[in-house]
Amino acid sequence: MDKLVACQTCGLVQEVDEVPKDSVIKCARCHFQIIHRRLNSRARTLAFSLAALILYFPSNFFPIVTADYQGQHVQTTVFQGIRSLFQHQQYFIGSLVFCTSILTPALKIIGLIFISLTLNCPYWKKSRTWIFKIIRIIDPWNMLEVFLLAICVSMIELGEVAAVHPGRGVFSFAATVVLTLLATLSFDSRLLWDSPAEQRHYE
After folding, report:
1. What gap in Å lies between CA 36 and CA 23, rounded to an integer?
2. What is the pLDDT of residues 137-177, one digit of tens each?
3. Angle formed by the axes of helices 104-117 and 41-61, nearest 10°
4. Which helix or strand (DSSP H or E) is residue 132 part of?
5. CB-CB contact of 155 with 166 (8 Å)
6. Does residue 25 sit in the same domain as residue 125?
7. Same domain, residue pair 10 and 54
8. What is the spatial distance between Cα 1 and Cα 15, in angstroms, rounded to a whole number?
9. DSSP character at residue 99
10. Contact (Cβ atoms closer than 8 angstroms) between residue 18 and residue 88
11. Are residues 61 and 144 in the same domain?
12. How far is the C-alpha of 137 from the C-alpha of 203, rounded, in Å?
């Protein structure tokens, strides 16, 4: 049965046939891929999300950086940085850092795990749709990559006046960033609306 599909790049609406497994359909005008199913999407998304969730806790509770300055040894975690902002009455910045570096990444990881685990359950279809919408809303506020870049820049700048070293948490933090990106890229959103037979075919 033919169906209409709009290209995400140039917006051209065109008719396409049923897509065979392991096949790719490209736009007739810009040749961008308009239908490309990600095979093993559910398993890969679940694996990456679980790994990101496991590393999420040490990345937030272990020291991100350690510094030696004038005989003092200082270790800083993400939570300590946020608490310091609130103690200095920087409530807006502290809340922004908390939301973008702790809250939204956790919600995204847990949401992807929930969707992956309940794909074969028709009773959770509406809940999965709402959770996916929430993930799409909070995704622009997920600033793990920017926060990691800020850590690296601060280590380089502070290295001129103090001995700054990466802490145990920075490696977990970097791994969490990579695994979260891989989980997002692996997820095929069309599984949310596929029939059970189609889900078994593509998942």
Report:
1. 7
2. 887 777 655 555 555 555 555 555 556 666 777 788 888 88
3. 150
4. helix 125-138
5. yes
6. no
7. no
8. 10
9. I
10. no
11. yes
12. 25
Do residue 24 and residue 78 come from a single domain? no
Identify the residue whose tokens are 């999407």. 41
**CA 90/CA 60 separation, integer angstroms:** 20
Please report, for residues 4, 15, 37, the alpha-carbon distance to residue 10 in angstroms, rounded to integers and kept in the order given: 15, 15, 20
Model-level pTM? 0.73
61, 169 Cβ separation under 8 angstroms: yes
Specify the DSSP element, H or E, that contains 6.
strand 3-6
Distance linking the first and last C-alpha atoms of the chain: 22
Residue range(s) defining the domain that contains residue 103: 40-202
* Per-residue burial over 155-173, b = 16 or more CB atoms within 10 Å of its CB, e = otherwise: beeeeeeeebebbbbbebb
Residues 75-104: tens digit of each pLDDT: 777 787 778 778 888 888 778 778 878 888
The token pair at 167 is: 């802490």
Beta-ladder partners of 66: 75, 165
Helix (H) or strand (E) holding 111: helix 104-117
